[in-house]
Design goal:
By secondary structure, this protein is an alpha/beta fold. 25% of the residues lie in helices and 22% in strands. It has five helices and eleven strands, in the order E-E-E-H-E-H-H-E-E-E-E-E-E-H-E-H. The protein has a six-stranded mixed β-sheet, with helices on one face. Helix 4 packs antiparallel against helix 5. The chain is globular.
């Protein structure tokens, strides 16, 4: 089960996906809402936090979540706020009942990761790509358009047209032909 615990929140936050299963994990913690209460309501507890990247809207709740559930946060760069354990590029990470491949995808932020499970047909895209071919900002510190395009293309090469779900850092998840949205993002990022 994958649930966006930030759904309906009316404050500045990212999505935060609770992946319930053998290893119950929160992918990003969001900010400015009661993430702990929502996790307790839906799962009762957590085994870990996994971060797509460390922009404040994605990690604002990380310390409270870690302290409450006595868990560690995993991310690409342990020198970043809130990251306890580093995930290496191409490392396998268990989320819920499935294994995901961690893909280092900079361009929006240097420590950005996407998580892809071929067997589950699921991609956690963070702020790399969004619905309808939108893509992550590159005008922030560490942003770089050419790097972002290479990262989008890397995700395209890793995933395939059998992708069933794409869970993004902002906006709705994509459950109808998400691979097409990634292809559109690759094209659009080259144009503007």
């Amino acid at each position: 089960m994958i649930r966006n615990i930030a759904s309906g929140v009316q404050s500045f936050t990212s999505n935060a996906f609770l992946v319930v299963g053998e290893r119950t994990v929160l992918v990003d913690t969001g900010s400015n809402f009661d993430a702990v209460g929502r996790v307790e309501e839906l799962a009762g507890g957590l085994d870990a936090v996994v971060l797509t990247h460390t922009h404040p809207d994605h990690v604002g709740n990380v310390e409270t979540v870690k302290d409450t559930f006595d868990v560690e946060a995993f991310g690409f760069d342990a020198n970043q706020h809130g990251v306890d354990v580093e995930i290496e590029d191409d490392e396998t990470v268990a989320l819920g009942d499935d294994d995901y491949r961690a893909l280092h995808t900079p361009g929006h932020k240097n420590d950005h990761l996407c998580f892809y499970s071929e067997s589950a047909g699921v991609l956690f895209a963070g702020d790399l790509v969004f619905q309808n071919g939108s893509f992550g900002r590159t005008d922030l510190e560490e942003g770089d358009r050419e790097t972002l395009v290479r990262s989008i293309d890397r995700v395209l090469a890793a995933a395939d047209e059998e992708l069933r779900e794409m869970h993004t850092g902002h906006g709705p998840s994509v459950t109808t032909n998400p691979y097409h949205d990634i292809e559109l993002a690759s094209q659009t990022a080259r144009m503007y």
